[in-house]
Write a structure and sequence with these properties.
The chain has three helices and no strands. The protein is mainly alpha-helical.
Length: 150
Amino acid sequence: MKMKMKKYILLLFFVSLLKINADSKVIPYTMDDRDRMMRLEVKLEEGLKTIDAKFDAINSKFDAESKKSDARFEALQRQIDFTNNLILTLIAGLLGSIIYMWWDRRAANAPIKDAVELEAKKNKNIVLALKEYANINPEFKNIFDRAAIL
């Protein structure tokens, strides 16, 4: 502790020597200098207030422009979302229509297909019966041969 005190005393001694040396070069500070300094301080404060006001105005302009651009981007995003939904709806409608047409044609053609198969089977049976009759009746066979049916 005593060592620290000695260091502080030595430091104070050297500072006081410097003070004495600095006092030898006295620069007069007049009331005019004080008044100038006060006016300079007032001007500096007014200038800083003006700069702060300008920065606040610039910040408010940037905020307003940022809000405008955000609103534009949101409007653009809504338009893109609407377009995407419209395209998906059209694709779903088109696929639904194609699937319905395929199912409807298949359902509508099933009875016709069954009827055609039934008629084909009947025709086959008729042709077989006519062949058998033609084998029994030679006149009938001549008629079919001329018509190239059998």
